[in-house]
Amino acid sequence: MLHCDRLFSGVDNIYCVFLGSLHNLSMLNKQYGLSKGTNEAMFIFEAYRTLRDRGPYHADQVLKELEGSFGFVIYDNKDGTVFVASGSNGQIGLYWGIAVDGSVVVSEDLELIKASCAKSFAPFPTGMQI
């Protein structure tokens, strides 16, 4: 697994954790009309919100435009949804499982997932979302 920083963004009851980097962030910021200072987490947040609110595109439409090594989790408290994705190159490992209380756990830390989810865990498929 590639070591990477975590970036956070949250506004209007939508929260994003982003791992890794986007090679085409500058181009994406221009395309979405965002400032040069917009980081990956803020971009994912804005792209998700734009696609969710302005349809008719499904929120995963944004995945097709992303280039780089990344993984992210968006929690949309307004809609009660979770959107998780990892890049198709598989360099950012995400794992998921079901905890004893029935909640879904997503992390880049395999040992944390193993400890939290006993036998109910697996690598998160690349390029996919839940």
From TrEMBL:
| Taxonomy, superkingdom | Eukaryota
Stretch forming the signal peptide: none
Per UniProt, residues of the DUF3700 domain are 1-130
Cross-referenced InterPro entries, in alphabetical order?
Answer: DUF3700, Ntn_hydrolases_N, TSJT1-like
Q: Which PANTHER family match?
A: ALUMINUM INDUCED PROTEIN WITH YGL AND LRDR MOTIFS (PTHR45952), NUCLEOPHILE AMINOHYDROLASE-RELATED (PTHR45952:SF15)
Name used for this protein in its record: DUF3700 domain-containing protein
Origin species, per record, is: Arachis hypogaea (Peanut)
